[in-house]
TrEMBL record:
It comes from Bacillus gobiensis. It catalyses: O-phospho-L-tyrosyl-[protein] + H2O = L-tyrosyl-[protein] + phosphate. GO terms for molecular function: protein tyrosine phosphatase activity. Its EC number is 3.1.3.48. This is protein-tyrosine-phosphatase. Pfam families: LMWPc. Coiled coil: none annotated. Keywords: Hydrolase, Protein phosphatase.
Length: 156
C-alpha cells in the first residue's frame, strides 16, 4: 500500500481538501486498494474538528465527500509510515523537518512543486484569504500531478 499524507497548518482547510480531492481521484482510477491517503496539521488548534465550513461546502458542491474527517497533528511516526508527505507550503515543510528531525523514507515536497506551470509554489491558506475556490483549483491540479507521478513511479 502506498501511503500519502497531506499537511497544512491546522488541518481544517487545505490538507483535508487535498485529502478528499486525492481520495476521489484515486477512487475514480480504481486504485483504492493500492493507495491510502490521510491529512494532518503542524499545529494543534483544531484537533478533532471537522474540515472548515468553506472546505466542506465547496467539496460538497463538487460531489466530493469529507465524511469522517477530523483534524489531527502530524506525529513523528507519520514520517516513517507514509511514503509521500505533501505539504501545502514552505512553512509546513520547515515544520515537518523540525517535528521529527526527518529520518524517515518519505518523499517530502510541496504540492505545487509538482505543477511546473504553477506561478506559485505555496497553496495560500483560505482560513485567512477566504478564497476556497482558488485553493480548490490549485489543490486539484497538484493532486492530479501527484497521482500521475505515483502511478508512474509504482507502475500502477
Amino acid at each position: 500500500m502506498i501511503e500519502v499524507l497531506f499537511i497544512c497548518l491546522g488541518n481544517i482547510c487545505r490538507s483535508p481538501m487535498a485529502e478528499a480531492v486525492f481520495r476521489d481521484l484515486v477512487k475514480k482510477k480504481g486504485l483504492e486498494g493500492k493507495i491510502s491517503v490521510d491529512s494532518a496539521g503542524t499545529g494543534s488548534w483544531h484537533v478533532g474538528n471537522p474540515p472548515h465550513e468553506g472546505t466542506s461546502s465547496l467539496l460538497k458542491e463538487k460531489g466530493i465527500s469529507t465524511e469522517g474527517m477530523a483534524a489531527r497533528v502530524v506525529e513523528e511516526e507519520d514520517l516513517e509510515k507514509f511514503d509521500y508527505l505533501i505539504a501545502m507550503d514552505a512553512e509546513n515543510i520547515s515544520a515537518l523537518k523540525v517535528i521529527a528531525r526527518y529520518s524517515g523514507n518519505a518523499a517530502i515536497s510541496r504540492l505545487l512543486d509538482l505543477v511546473d506551470e504553477s506561478e506559485t509554489k505555496d497553496v495560500p491558506d483560505p482560513y485567512y484569504t477566504g478564497n476556497f475556490e482558488e485553493v480548490y483549483s490549485l489543490v486539484t491540479r497538484g493532486c492530479e500531478k501527484l497521482l500521475d507521478r505515483i502511478v508512474k513511479e509504482h507502475n500502477l
